[in-house]
Specification:
Blueprint (H helix, E strand, L loop, with lengths): L1 H36 L1 E7 L2 E6 L6 E5 L8 E6 H7 L3 E8 L10 E7 L2 E6 L11 H11 L2 H6 L2 E2 L9 E3 L4 E3 L8 E5 L3 E6 H7 L3 E8 L11 E6 L2 E6 L11 H11 L2 H5 L5
Antiparallel strand pairs: 1-2, 2-8, 3-4, 4-5, 5-7, 6-7, 9-10, 11-12, 12-13, 13-15, 14-15
Length: 273
């Protein structure tokens, strides 16, 4: 009986050790998965940040054009390839004022603010010509994360200086000082419309522009629109009237409307999250 109890105890102990080992393996897998999901935030330029996989740390180099203007860029390379051959290009973020980026062979529109489209450009083949085996290995190890890294782009939030700020829950606009007490808005969950105040008060006219929110690209079915902002998987689309919006109003209302309408493009360039 004593031997039987000893054997049963040994079996139970072995089972407990096996379960503990299994739990340890599960925990280890979770730890590896968490490590793989960990990100590092990189301020790539004065106007945007990116999130890279943690294992990219010390594995890449960043090269930028000098000026922040149309066509300027920040390019990212696998470090060893770049040091050896100036190759190893992973992707670039380029700024465009227009849609000429659509002529590129492999691109993705990742964001829009400050009046620029922030476009990710990718190589169409591997960038390891002439590199050592170690450099090629490093490149292949990180290039798979390039598209996810590019898609993580976020604008650097600007300090909101001055009193002439319109602030919604998810974006803000800087307004000229002369707009104070001269405009009103109509707001809904999907749209904010701006009007010259005197025209609106007199005849419900004076529409200046609207900022609309879209989670998809259905705005492309509209007859008149412009993509003005893009972040957090949301498109901020602007609609501007084709004709003046000041019929049947006083001369003072017309004067106010014309003054505000002349500032609309400058206002829209300031849209920020």
């Amino acid at each position: 009986m004593k031997k039987l109890l000893q054997r049963m105890g040994a079996v139970l102990l072995a089972a407990a050790l096996f379960l503990a080992a299994g739990n340890e393996c599960v925990s280890m897998k979770n730890m590896i998965a968490l490590a793989a999901d960990k990100k590092i935030t990189v301020k790539a330029a004065s106007d945007f940040t990116l999130k890279f996989p943690a294992d990219w740390k010390n594995q890449y180099v960043m090269k930028a054009s000098r000026d922040k203007k149309h066509g300027s860029y920040v390019a990212f390379y696998s470090k060893k390839c770049y040091k050896e051959t100036k190759e190893g290009w992973l992707f670039s973020i380029a700024r465009y004022r227009d849609d000429s980026y659509m002529d590129m062979p492999d691109y993705e529109l990742e964001g829009r603010w400050n009046g620029y489209s922030y476009v990710a450009l990718f190589p169409t083949d591997v960038q390891i010509m002439g590199a050592s085996k170690a450099a090629q290995k490093q490149y292949r190890g990180i290039v798979a994360g390039a598209r996810e890294a590019a898609a993580s782009i976020q604008p650097v939030k600007k300090e909101r200086k001055g009193n002439s700020i319109y602030e919604a829950s998810d974006f803000w606009l800087k307004l000229p000082a002369g707009w104070k007490d001269s405009y009103i808005t109509e707001e809904s969950d999907s749209c904010v419309a701006f009007y010259a105040k005197k025209c609106y008060d007199e005849a419900k006219k004076g529409w200046l522009f609207s900022v609309m929110r879209f989670e998809d690209d259905s705005y492309e079915e509209m007859t008149a629109w412009r993509l003005e902002g893009r972040w957090n998987d949301m498109n901020y689309v602007v609609s501007i009237p084709k004709a003046v919006q000041m019929e049947d109003v006083s001369e003072d209302a017309v004067k106010q409307y014309r003054k505000l309408a002349g500032d609309v493009e400058k206002v829209l360039d300031t849209i920020q999250p």
